Structures are given as C-alpha cells and as structure tokens.
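Researcher: Good morning. I'm working through a list of sequences from a screen, and I'd like to move beyond sequence-only analysis. For each chain I'm collecting a predicted structure so we can compare shapes side by side. This is the next one on the list. No need for commentary yet; just the structure.
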Amino acid sequence: MGSPTPQEVSDELRRVAERWQQLPLGHALSRLGLVRDLVQDLADRVASSRGRPPVPVPDLGPAVVLDQLAVMVWDASAAGVGADLQERLATLRRAL
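Model: Good morning. Structure tokens for this chain:
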C-alpha cells in the first residue's frame, strides 16, 4: 500500500525539514510555534473528519516537531483533509 500523501506534498515536507535542520537553535525556538500551530491545525482537522473532539498535540520540542508534522501530514492526507497542504507547507518553509 502506497502513501496517501501526494508526491508534491512529500517534496515540500522534505524542503521544510531540510530548512528546519539548517536553523540555529535560537531561531528554531523562535519559529517552533509556527510549526506547532500547523501540526495542531492538521490534528484538529483529522479529528473533526473522524467525528472526534480535538486533542492537544504535546509539545515535545524542536527536535521532535518535524516528526510530528510528518505524521500529521500523512494523517491529513489519509483523511482527505489535506487539499491545501503543499501551499501551507511552502508558506511555513518561507516563514522559517
């Protein structure tokens, strides 16, 4: 079974991850909220699509947030709520 995530979204997620890895820690910490906001929004969308209440995504810090983003991109794609993911990831990358 293949990934539900479109290739162009996977490519943009890879670009975000590459950019994140290049950031000095202080800069990453100042941008952590931007990534977490997207992660939480995707989690909320997925929960809503499944008729579930939103649940806060735990803050595990800058070393883990990109893993959380990757999981939520996959989940959003699988749930069919990721139509704007490529654009949102590109916007995030530019803000980093």
